[in-house]
Structures
1.
Amino acid sequence: MSGHGPARPMSALASPPLRGTAHVPGDKSISHRSLILGALSVGETRISGLLEGQDVLDTAKAMQAFGADVVNHGGGDWSVHGVGVGALAEPENVIDCGNSGTGVRLIMGMMATSPITATFTGDASLRSRPMGRITDPLALFGATAHGRDGGRLPLTLVGAANPVPVRYTTPMPSAQVKSAVLLAGLNAPGETVVTETEATRDHTERMLAGFGADITVEEDGQSRIIRLQGQPELRPQTIAVPRDPSSAAFPVCAALLVEGSDVLVPNIGLNPTRAGLYTTLKEMGADLTFENLREEGGEPVADLRARFGPLKGIEVPPERAASMIDEYPILSALAATAEGKTVMRGVKELRVKESDRIDAMARGLEACGVTVEEDEDTFIVHGMGPGGVPGGATCETRLDHRIAMSFMCLGMATQKPVKIDDAGAIETSFPIFIDLMGDLGAVFRRENA
Ligand code: S3P
């Protein structure tokens, strides 16, 4: 079952060479943050290129519930009339964040230092994910959480009436935890300081600076120390959301999987905190070229061209994990068609994503005839070479968009079709995936439920 309707099984069949240009949707992380910071500034924020995936639509609805006026002007153009820091309204109903961990965790941070109460829920995937990593630091500001089963959703958060600023070192590499603390810090008086020992995506820091917050980042080689002065007046912005490198990974890796392919993916965000996959692919020997390197909206971007060619398995170092955390599912599918084994270390955060992504990929790859090894923090895929993966299996997607898209890509290059039990979750981040891949030449078939 998908979170938003009946299951939609689908198969990927051996595909002819993929050719053409893939315009992938807007960045999911930046889209969530644009809506949230828009809601916290006074006046109108204009956003173009917003990702209109279900995750972001759920955040837009939540911002309305907290008092912002969010308007869809069509064609990816949106506006948000914000209420300002410290002026959030109390929602009249439960906030349903659907499948989105980023949505619910950032929104909990946003409201934790306001004297209001809200109850959050989500789909079966989100209700199974840990929220203590967010509610623990929010308690330091003075907020109180009442969650199910040790802090899972549904969860009621009572915001602090008299918040205090916080100094917090994130215990795991998580941009969601860092961002929740920073957003909470916005409405606490004085200075909130967040330290991370591994750099994670820095869109919140960049965007807070863009909205006029007093924020500094100091890097000493061991850690990043982020200092935020509370209770600023945020100034509304005009934001052009760059295209999502995590979505781009699918047509790029599909081109590397399917013999004879040559695909251009324009305008890809290449923020170094997000671009680890491309370093890894290069090390595997991928034929990738970055054309037209430039800066847009404070983020580095380029047009990326991917051509099929032989790949070799490699060791992906643990210190790269945070910069490609969402790309391990598609990397592991690609690794199955490389020569030799690919070893992914330092990846235990994958176990608490929309699904346990190591387990979901391992079981699906095994069903397709691939040998894998795993422990809590490591995932190893034994490559079978181009055309070597048997396929002919049904893979469980577990309400996880990236698992669904990874197996659809793998199935384009297996000996027998690969079926997924439900394509529904793809709507959360890449609603045009099926059509876009079809336009490049992918052969997909809808199956009966
Ligand atoms: C995100 C952070 C990452 C990532 C998620 C988006 C964000 O999660 O997996 O898809 O926008 O902050 P973690 O912070 O849990 O690593």
2.
Amino acid sequence: MAVGFATATHRGSGDFEANITLVVIVSCILAANGGLMFGYDIGISGGVTSMPQFLKKFFPVVYKKTQEKGIESNYCKYDNQGLQLFTSSLYLAALTATFAASHTTRTLGRKVTMLIAGLFFIVGTVFNAAAMNLVMLIIGRILLGCGVGFANQAVPLFLSEIAPTRIRGALNILFQLNTTIGILFANLVNFGTAKISGGWGWRLSLGLAGVPALMLTLGSLIVVDTPNSLIARGKLEEGKAVLKRIRGVSNVEPEYLEIVEASRVASEVKHPMRNLLRRRNRPQLVIAVCMQIFQQFTGINAIMFYAPVLFNTVGFKSDASLYSAVITGAVNVLATLVSIYSVDRLGRRLLLLQAGVQMFLSQMVVAVVLGLKVKDHSESLTKGLALLVVVMVCTFVAAFAWSWGPLGWLIPSETFPLETRSAGQSVTVCVNMVFTFVIAQAFLSMLCHFKFGIFIFFSAWVSVMSVFVLFLLPETKNVPIEEMTNRVWSQHWYWRRFMDNDENGHA
Ligand code: BGC
């Protein structure tokens, strides 16, 4: 997720002299851990909540409902606020932690913030894997959420600052790719651990999060802080020395001067949030906020969080549900690669619009199949129809993964001007976490009440967001980041009216 350029401390028009050095490569591996950790947390909860032993221990009421045939509606077996809280509490904590994280990234630097994230992840993982009761389980999720809040603010920032300009864009989507790999890894782990006899497989599932957590922690001890962060905190000489080391060239003066200048400009903005609310920053703000709300209202996390539960609901056995979740996880990774390849060729708008049609159609097919075939108390789908549902879910996930997944993060990060970039990024992460929380907390109850209509609900949202893209989202492909105002906003049929206002924010 979250990405790039969130700092108000760099980036000009120049592509400075730079080699791709070992330090930069090590940093990419670090990013992998931040993204993997985030993805692992997204993917692990659904599989765990569909494991009978886990339910028996922590949610006996839900367990009973899943065992009794014909009493509870198929759609309502998992409708339980506590069970949803197990998934959603992480995002609530992440959202809160984002505020603290934006402070520590600024005052203590990216490196220390990543270390804090790693420590939260480790303690959270221990609580989860060793949980004896629901309280321990939820505390563990909250700690992991704090880790996500800190990591998602610091790691992408760290990456975008340490990378040479020419690979910054690709790195931006690489973070998303790592998130999808984390989700897939979690799906695979659940598939394996569900088979462990003795009923402790869920502990292993939750405990294996310790691997990326430990790697992130150790990694953050090894790496240097970014030159941008050092310079912004007044450590000019150290910043210059680090810049030389990471670029692997001796003449870093032009880049160094630009960072110093950008730091100065950024430090003059005394009230970043108030600045963000000015009329002339309205287009970017509206787009960033809408992109996050829309990204979550595609319904993607209904699948990412609850695919095994969902497949179980429509009649798959436990094994087949976990297996199907692995397939959707793999499609998610592969389709993200498509995005990396095509985003600067086909452009953002085309990907979003094409995906809108594909997501709409696949959700409608799922709604029709479930509407006709999955009744409250009837038995499962036939093999052919079950396959059709899995194929349609995959078609939906693929479309998301080459559009709203990465672009939901990329577009806000590339449209804010330097002076609002940092505040803009915090708002972007926060809004995303709020709506991720909402979906995590509400989906199983919505499934119970809307039944197959839940997919019609999401497809209606997909139509709304596609219309938004069609009329209000300008193309930002190949536009240098500091030229957005002149080349994009001032040219747009609607947003240009926000560009000709005075400094006090009046039109
Ligand atoms: C979203 C997550 C989602 C993931 C799926 C990300 O861009 O922010 O909420 O789970 O994509 O790959």
3.
Amino acid sequence: MNSSLGEQTTDLDGREGTGHLLHMLAERLYPICRSITGNGVRQTLQILKEYLPLDLIEIPTGTQVFDWTIPKEWNVNEAWIKDPGGKKIVDFVNHNLHLLNYSIPFHGHLSLSQLKKHLYSLPENPDWIPYRTSYYQENWGFCLTHRQLESLNNGEYEVYIDSTLENGSLTYGELLIPGTSDDEVLFSAHVCHPSLANDNLSGIAVLTYLAKDLLKQKNQLSYRFLFIPGTIGSIAWLAHNEAQTKKIKHGLVASLLGDSGDFTYKKSRRGNATIDQVVEHVLNHSEWPYTIRDFSPYGYDERQYCSPGFNLPVGNLTRSQFGQYPEYHTSADDLELIQPVCLELSLEVYKRIVEVLEGNFYYQNVNPKCEPQLGKRGLYTAIGGQSDQRNMQLAMLWILNFSDGQHSLLDIAQKSGFDFFVIKKMAEILVEKKLLLKMDK
Ligand code: ZN
């Protein structure tokens, strides 16, 4: 069923709802072998371009970005292991996690013990394939289930890796949605993981649909979306856009948004940035359980955005915590682990955060000497339809008292315990009644 706006509301199988659309995007991206460079990232960004007017930026191999250098570009054609009988027992075609990401080209015959030095498995989860990378140290390897590793017999194995590691470039996608103000909100997701759903695709899907929404409306703030390879991508962006970073007033790194874990917010390094206040407020006034954590220099690209030379107000909002769910960095982080309903809820929380950022203004009480007489201005009747009239009056008193130009609506919501959206609605009524004046800052 399509809505009157022509917006697609069902996926290809007729499954309805936003959550399914997000999941469908993840399904399209899941099979692609991504890395920090290479055609998998380009293919991913090309798909995102069907949804968003993304710019694709290429940074050549060898470019110095702060203390790092853009590495050679990696691509894979084929990779497999044949057992002593000549049977392919591990094949990149079957799962792209089978190949150590960034494996150099290799062809050779090895004994089992020689081969085992290049094999990775998970004894604690013997049916899962681990995800391993070797970006900055030339190596080759294969990842397989522990059960399969245990079943290998002695003999001579043939290993073939047809990969290329050559001068090329690192690719990332960027979209700026300009608002009335130059002040920016940064949303960043990593796009460098191969077939991993929660860690990578869930963040991409949520941000894609968030950006689609923001493109449809007029915004006060400007929104910058980055779809970048983890670590090296954000370092490269920061190195090339240092002057731009002054405009970033709020930001979130999005990942791990499709599992059924409770929300986890890791604060910005500042710890008291508006974004920290906003996310905490939104979670606190929702019915979903959540955890708030202080910043730590371990995790996703907030590590770079919050490095001391930048110290941007960027937090990290996930569901399960970074690295703290059993399927993390394994083949079990698949399309089953991310659920449409969880993706949809995550998108909803991100949207609420945006709504607070968009409406968090400062106001001035134009009648600050004693309380204004609300009755004669029809303010009791203005809220006559409200079921909780007393509370609404109380909210007005909070707004009038603290609208001194020093407290934002969110500050007032926090102080009073009211939900931001109640405070905002009441402030709008007070503006209408000429008791409040919206300030520029
Ligand atoms: Zn990861």
4.
Amino acid sequence: MKLPPTQVAVLERASADDPTEIDELAAQLDEKPETITGAAFALEEEGLLSISERSEVTVSLTEEGRRYVAEGLPEVRLYEAALSAGADETPVSMGEVLGSADLEGETVDIALSNFARKGYGAIEAGEITAASDVTPEADEETTALTAVADGESIEDDLRERLESRNLIETAERTHRAVTLTEAGVTELMAGVEAAERVDRLEPEHLSSGEWEDLQFAAYNVEADAEAPTPGKRHILRQAAKRVKEVLVGMGFKEMQGPHVDADFWINDCLFMPQDHPARTHWDRFALETPDKIDDLPEELVDRVERAHREGVGEDGDGYHSPWDREFADELALRGHTTSLSARYLSGEQVGDLEPPQRYFSVEKAYRNDTLDATHLLEFFQIEGWVMAEDLTVRDLMGTFTEFYSHFGITDLRFKPTYNPYTEPSFELFGRHPETDELIEIGNSGIFRPEMLEPLGVEADVMAWGLALERLLMLMTGFEDIRDVHGTLVDLDFLRSVEVEY
Ligand code: PHE
């Protein structure tokens, strides 16, 4: 029989009568114990050796433990000092006893709590009384500590007590020993030779004919291996990709446009009054340089301004609030991607559009929100709109029902809301798979004439802004948006989660 050299050496040194310790074999063969253990396990697998194990707990003193072996346990020193001061007869002042026991700092607390625990006496109103019926010379913790110092073994309960006082440390080690099996003896008698063991076949092995005598290492397919965590597409990007595929499948075209845009496109075109709270610096990330856009389409600006001031239609009415051209020119990070819808609907982006039309984008929007489990300073918005004749709320609901069904989300709820640019308007809710709570997943509505007329759109337009992160929450069940975005992300979650559809 041919075996790798270490295995041959172990086999030859093992006995059929008495177990031989692996440590001893390692010393004899001048190998690491791990190497010998590996060889022994391989031989055990072959049935040539049996392995026996025993575990040994070694106990050693900590630094603090060593100090008390030399100086005595603090509570014992306190008791002895109290006794010398006559505290077994009349209470003595604490300060005096501590001084003569030479106790200070945190040792004082240790002394006091153990003094009380062991019933050495009582401390009341700054005075100490010593019990007269205790014999600190026989303190079992002191005895055990000295035993450990002398390398002797101690009782389990004392070991635990000293360990919890941090005076000793224990370490457990497994010792293994090998014994030849009958098969091992038989093989040894038949003759065991050392063979070189290789883990791969090389061309030279074949050309030299050496392969015939080589021992090949077997693959252990059950061995624990490190799980590789290579780079992968972030789940938000995976989800964005999937959303795009679904919307393209539903006949939508993708919109593109600037992250930084004029307030005109972000808000004025949406019939958002200039004094609307969302347009203040509280919500908005304004740009410092450059701070103004220089190419707004003038005619459109005039029409938008007129809608704000006078409203549209026969009985239209405006906001009667200030409208400042300077503000319309100001640049900011877009607070929603509805700025893209305004650009596309106006004809500025891809020319005038004839109904029917469907457009979408899955892009970042930025808001100066307070960070919490559901709000970030930036998020991905799934923007979309459909331009057609005679659209109704049913069309809007049907579109959402179809869209979300692609992601397995079927329990949608609608709640009327208010947006300056849509009428009617609906917030959209879905049920969180873990918490069962209804969470808001989007906002939508049918664009108002005050918005569409200045943009030159005659057909109806239904539109929405949905949060990609919220969609993902419903799909994967995570509960805190900071698990997937930002510096506190849950890496294990990101590594293991897949967007399934
Ligand atoms: N802009 C809205 C938001 O950010 C979403 C929306 C878009 C609502 C279009 C209605 C119509 O919440």
